[in-house]
Amino acid sequence: MVGPMQISLDGKVALVTGASKGIGKATAATLAASGAKVMLVSRKLDQLTAAAAEIDGATEVYAANV
User: Fold this and answer.
1) Sign of torsion over alpha carbons 59, 9, 13, 28
2) Which is nearest to 34 in space by CA: 43, 26, 46?
3) pLDDT tens digits, residue range 31-62?
4) Domain boundaries, the chain
5) pTM value > 0.85
6) Is the N or C terminus of the chain more exposed, i.e. has fewer CB atoms within 10 Å?
7) In Å, how far are 10, 20, 26, 35, 56 from 64, measured between CA atoms?
8) Shortest CA distance to 41 belongs to which of 4, 1, 14?
């Protein structure tokens, strides 16, 4: 996995769709590691909850079909 971005995202909010797995999950983790509060969105709440538990940072989960 790629490390944190070289800029600080402290105080910023990011919304990531498809965040329960794959590229979306990796993107959410990178944004959180850079200081952003990340809103994880996907259709399956159980997978979102598991993904959020693996991410070190401030997250919220929303089950939705965007």
Assistant:
1) negative
2) 26
3) 999 999 999 999 999 999 999 999 999 999 99
4) 13-63
5) yes
6) N
7) 26, 12, 19, 24, 23
8) 14
Place of tokens 């952003």: 36
CA distance 56 to 66: 25
The pair of three-digit structure tokens given for residue 42, joined into one six-digit string: 């996907």
- The Cα–Cα gap between 65 and 2 comes to 28
Q: What angle do CA 12, 25, 17 make, to 5 degrees?
A: 65
**CA–CA separation, 24 vs 38, rounded Å?**
11
Per the structure block, which two tokens stand in for 24? 């979306």
pLDDT in tens, 6-37: 788 999 999 999 999 999 999 999 999 999 99
